[in-house]
Amino acid sequence: MKLTLGFSPCPNDTFIFDALIHHKIDTEGLEFDVSYEDVETLNQKAFNNELAVTKLSYHAYAYAVEHYTLLDAGSALGFGVGPLLICKNPETATRLSGQATAGQALTVGIPGRFTTANFLLGLAYPQLDDKREMLFSDIEQALLDDAIAFGLIIHENRFTYQKKGLHKVIDLGDFWEKKTGGPIPLGGIVVQRQLPEDVKHRLNRVLRKSVEYALAHPKSGIDFIRSHAQEMDEAVMYQHIDLYVNRYSVSLGTEGRSAIQRLFEEAAALELIPPVTQPLFLS
To answer: Residue 155 catalytic?
Structure first.
């Protein structure tokens, strides 16, 4: 059986999917037609129910839950993995507290409206409502060009912004961890609800095996990972992988599921997402 599959070209995704799509493990009769897209494009495809299996942001999952259910394997959760709010000049950060009285609009570049990063930004700085959506990899340059006052960065940009002379305002993952005591849920792998139950569970098994293979053979997919990575430095790629691929990627477990449930509850309480009536997790 062939399934359409979408995930990002970022090192954590190519790392975990390498063994699956290159048949380094037994895929139990499943084949994949792969699309590589940035996370906001994947979110939009999920809203349109375009792919059988896809990576998406947990924020976006609330808008696609009627069509998809979350797999236990493949997620990006963790401590110290959150998005960063950055700026070009350190003094710019001091304007945040005075923005409301100063009446000045501070434009922030975000990697997409439906990213979990944007949801966290809304929790921490609701006054930053002048947002400009852009490709995540363009945000640093927009700051350097003074096109925006702040940038919300994800993925490997966490490891490159300082080399470009940019400065951290806040780690929104740390903000969430202090607020909840749990890991921050960033993105997960979902499968169409309409597919047969045995296919969903086969997919979850082979994805878990793919993650486990990657962790056991971390250099196995290096050429594949490098071919898609924005940042080609191998050390940076593996920093990225080490940050986002962990025990929650193998299996969410009770702690991971609780963190995701808490994220949805917080978002619903603030009316940041529509009511969710479908079960979130694969049975």
So the answer is: yes
Condensed to tens digits (0 to 9), the pLDDT of residues 101-142 reads: 344 578 999 988 888 889 889 888 888 889 999 988 899 999
The count of other CB atoms within 10 Å of the CB of residue 97 is 11
**Residue 172 backbone dihedrals phi, psi, to 5 degrees:** -75, -20
Question: Looking up tokens 């945040």, which residue turns up?
Answer: 96
CB within 8 Å of 61: residues ≥ 6 apart: 46, 68, 70, 188, 190, 280
CA distance 99 to 93: 10
What are φ and ψ of residue 56, in 5° steps? Answer: -150, 165
Classify 29 in phi/psi space as left (phi over 0), alpha (psi -120 to 50) or beta: left
Residues 4-19, mean pLDDT to the nearest whole number: 96
Single out the catalytic residue among 155, 167, 201, 240. 155
